[in-house]
Write a structure and sequence with these properties.
The chain is an alpha+beta fold. The protein is built from one helix and two strands; from the N terminus they run αββ.
Length: 83
């Protein structure tokens, strides 16, 4: 049997909604920070990926490698460059 949830109340017996609003605000702030941190990590990687692609284009690299799933492991698959 599930126990009755413990609800935070004021001394007069009414539910303390302000407490739950503050908790929700803190949790939303933490979630927002986590999403921003993850997106920032991806944004930091973008310039390096662009530079690598440009260097390959300048050098005339004819093959690009992509990882494709094969069961539980990944293997490199060569994809020829289109001219």
């Amino acid at each position: 049997m599930t126990p009755w949830p413990d609800v935070r109340r004021h001394p007069d017996g009414s539910v303390d909604f302000d407490f739950y609003r503050r908790q929700a605000t803190v949790r939303r702030r933490l979630a927002r920070q986590r999403v921003f941190k993850r997106c920032l990590a991806l944004i930091r990687q973008a310039p390096k990926a662009i530079l690598v692609a440009l260097e390959r284009a300048v050098k005339g690299v004819s093959k690009v490698f992509f990882a494709r799933p094969t069961g539980r492991t990944y293997r490199n698959v060569r994809v020829p460059r289109r001219c």
